[in-house]
Write a structure and sequence with these properties.
By secondary structure, this protein is an alpha/beta fold. The protein has helices at residues 27-36, 63-72, 78-81, 84-89, 95-99, 106-113, 125-128, 139-144, 212-224, 243-254, 268-271, 278-284, 304-315, 334-346, 370-380, 433-437, and strands at residues 173-174, 180-184, 230-234, 261-266, 290-295, 320-326, 350-356, 391-396, 401-404, 410-414, 417-421, 427-431. Bound molecules: iron/sulfur cluster (SF4).
Length: 438
């Protein structure tokens, strides 16, 4: 049976029974397996120095998570905790479950008590272990625990601020730019970010999951649209699909001749790092050139578990970029952003985009003035490694696409000279004689 004829395995809801591989190797066996790999330093032509031990964790469960598990999930074993399907099955989704762990503020409590909330709450036990039980203002907690500020709709806010529904030639696919498409393969995420641009369409309140017929329609569109050379697979979170379904989908995309690159957009390494199993890696590495955009928001997400997840992806030869949404009270200062960007570089993730928060309904408490984003870029550019400076963009409301914003480094002209301001605010001249000759 050809790849085209095959039915996608499993259900579109994403989570299957635990695959055997989900019970991963413990760290000692993993290290041993790595050492025996045909491309290990001892046998490969080019010896590759292992990453420093201080960066790559030696255990798949950090001391913090272990203590949390013992306290709140005493019946769960370490193996279960490290099994991504256990993490998904045990997501915390209601007031009662969240209250068991966190001392909730009135604003959080009121939001969780409202049944008409558009975006459901869901937090993996792992991500819950990173939250401060007493401080409702803790950055990670602000991003994941509902707050009654979300229930207030402010001027300019729209359910579909980027106009994706108007640029969707078939369901679950957005075609905005000439040579690439966005393929929304699932509405499911292991954790729901309170600032999600697609809050209108993710979570169980967004209707039934995409089915095979919808996927087939999207695949047929890509196959007949020859200018599409790049497919961004997103959602929801595509890494919540089973290995089998992901394998099927990637094989179908890779079989389309004009699709040069495939990209995956995911928050999984931050909220469910246990998902990055050796079995998943074996699937992904079959479909190079495969790129990934990882969604990180705050340096506190760069835990030993997330580090191991990124290390596995990078070791599989997948170029990793990060996308960060600028959020008030979370990462809206130079110091926090610098720590995040530098931390990402240490785990081999290249900061890619810093997004101005999209004006979805109930996002006013998250949005910063645009000047804040510009100040952050100014505080990074020249002050740290150029690779660690993302491009600050506004995704233009109505479907205009990403528009980059830069601080004012171009200070005008003086005769043939261009006046430039450097990272310290000092003025320099560039003799732009070519412009005068033209
Ligand atoms: S993981 Fe992505 S799609 Fe899912 S809720 Fe967060 S931002 Fe939205």
């Amino acid at each position: 049976m050809s790849v085209e004829d095959a039915e996608p395995p499993g259900s579109t809801t994403g989570v299957l029974a635990p695959p055997a591989e989900a019970r991963e190797l413990d760290s000692a066996r993993w290290n041993q397996a790595k050492a025996q790999h045909p491309l290990s330093a001892s046998e490969s032509a080019v010896a590759v120095a292992p990453p420093p031990e201080s960066i790559v964790p030696q255990s798949r469960i950090s001391a913090r998570s272990r203590a949390f598990r013992r306290r709140f999930y005493p019946e769960a074993t370490n193996a279960e905790w490290c099994d991504w399907t256990w993490q998904v099955r045990n997501r915390i989704t209601d007031l009662e479950g969240i209250e068991r762990v966190l001392r909730l503020s009135d604003a959080e409590c009121n939001a969780l008590a409202r049944p008409d909330h558009l975006l459901p709450a869901a937090i993996t036990p792992y991500y819950m272990s990173l939250l401060d039980p007493d401080d409702a203002a803790q950055p990670l907690r602000r991003t994941i625990i509902p707050n009654e500020a979300e229930l207030v709709r402010s001027p300019g806010e729209e359910g579909d601020p980027l106009g994706e529904d108007n640029q969707s030639p078939v369901e679950c696919l957005v075609h905005r730019y000439p040579d690439r498409v966005l393929f929304l393969v699932t509405k499911f995420c292991s954790a729901y970010c309170r600032f999600c641009t697609r809050s209108r369409m993710v979570g169980h309140r967004a209707g039934p999951p995409y089915d095979t017929a919808q996927w087939e329609q999207a695949l047929a569109y890509v196959a007949r649209t020859r200018q599409v050379r790049d497919v961004l697979v997103s959602g929801g979170d595509p890494l919540t699909l089973s290995d089998e379904r992901l394998d099927w989908l990637l094989a179908r995309l890779r079989a389309i001749e004009h699709v040069e690159i495939i990209r995956l957009g995911t928050k999984t390494p931050a909220v469910l790092p246990q998902r990055i199993t050796p079995a998943l890696i074996r699937v992904l590495r079959k479909y190079h050139p495969l790129w990934m955009s990882l969604h990180f928001t705050h340096p506190d997400e760069l835990t030993p578990e997330a580090t191991l997840a990124c290390t596995r992806l990078a070791d599989a030869g997948i170029p990793l970029g990060s996308q960060t949404v600028l959020l008030a009270g979370v990462n809206d200062d130079v110091e926090t952003m610098k720590r995040l960007m530098q931390g990402l570089m240490k785990v081999r993730v290249r900061p890619y985009y810093l997004y101005q928060c999209d004006p979805i309904p109930g996002s006013a408490h998250f949005r910063t003035p645009v000047e804040t984003g510009l100040e952050i870029i100014q505080g990074l550019r020249g002050h740290t490694t150029g690779y660690a400076v993302p491009t600050y963009v506004i995704d233009a409301p109505g479907g205009g696409g990403k528009i980059p914003l830069l601080p004012a480094y171009f200070a005008g002209r003086d005769g043939t000279d261009v006046l430039l301001r450097n990272y310290q605010g000092k003025l320099f001249r560039y003799p732009d004689t070519a412009a005068c000759d033209a």
